[in-house]
Amino acid sequence: MRALRGKRRMIKLLNSKPGAAILLLLLMVIWAFSYIIIKLTVQSGAIPPMSLAFLRFVVAAAALYALPIRGAAPGREDRGVVALLGVFGMAVYFAFENYGLVYTTATNASILVSMIPAMTMLGAALFLGEKFTPANMAGLAVAFAASVLIIWNGSANFHLNPVGDLLILLSVISWTAYTLIGHGVMQKYTAALVARQALVTASLCLAPFFFHELFTGKLAGVTAPALLGVAYLGILCTALAYTIWGHCVRVTGPVHASNLLYLQSVITVICAWFTIREPVNAFLFACMGALIVGVYLSNAPAAPRPRMRVPRIK
Hints:
314 residues
């Protein structure tokens, strides 16, 4: 009985905004290592970019189909939308990101990806009719500036790489489209079931590129570390990540979920300090504080307007 009550409390927490924020923090820890794995894999030539995206989708889809997920799968009327999610949020997004990281630096990619919340807010205002306060927009600007300063940290230099930077920017637009298009579907179905169907579409989109690279010998240099990287990207960064993201978009809305992505910079700094003892100075602490304030303001609800009291006629 106690275990059942504990399970119910956990489910209630995860379906609340604080619980969704905790899940997003976990997601950002997982994603913090994905850029490193992708860059090392594609630059070493072990697995080409398109094959890497295809293999992670196949692994992710297999992982989700192996799990007994409750709930109804997306019906016929929503399959077209789910297919679009697979095209834009998976196949197109990772194709642009993987190729982009071949031509640009991780610093450039991190800064450009920081534009996702602003893109999502703009898209939500244009296509979903959402309203935002001046405090929300100011908070977004503060969070973006603090995130850029954390990434730079006085040592990294931003060098324009037109081809790679453009590809990363296109991946940002693709992810924004995925978040906005998927908002309605996520309200109706379990996120894991939506992700499972979308991954099948994404795999089919990239299958021709994979077989072309396979038959032309570009996969001849696959190594054991590269396969471990595929497993990490597929199971954690895709199957689990898309499930968490879809759930959080449903609970908090697309804009609030995207705004929390700024905290990834803070998590990256903390992870670097714990794992490789990268130094943390007062400048970084100040930037992290500003970023947290910015995220808070960007997610702050508008103050309710006071109701006018109409005097009673006696």
